[in-house]
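Hi R.,

Here's the chain you asked about this morning:
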Amino acid sequence: MELSEAEIEARLADLRRRREALDREIADHVLYLELGRRLRGAGPAPAQSEERASELHEPPEAVSPRAPAAIRTMPAAPEPPQRVPVAFEVDPAGARRYGRALIEAACGILVRAGRPMHAGEILEALVAEGFAVPGQDPVAALNTRLWKRSGPHGPLRRLGDAVYAPALGAE
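And the predicted structure, written out as tokens:
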């Protein structure tokens, strides 16, 4: 069975779309894993199998008696600090308005720059304009916001890890 050039190109385009979707999903999972580790205060952990990683984060009494002694004697995780309510929790509508204004400002920065920018560079420009991005890692928080707006109908295009440009229609 021979395929025409048009059929091959259509299949290639479909495969590329699926690969891009997988790449985005992989990047999301890596980002969430990294954010989870940072929020726990563990920092980036060395590569481990999923089984081993889950064993390390279980409380000691839940670990199998056959587990290595280092895991069985691991101290319990410290109690999380008391959480202080943030102003936006009192006014969720204000938080949404601020988030939209933040994305609009980021789009304006990208258009004025005339080139793709990393989330860290965008954050520096946003801070210079008077914006603040809450969170332990503001670059990661901004990257997540930008990534969510870089879909097929969003105002941004994601070009790589935390690198964004205006969407074609927005330029």
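The radius of gyration is 22 Å.

Let me know if you need anything else.
M.
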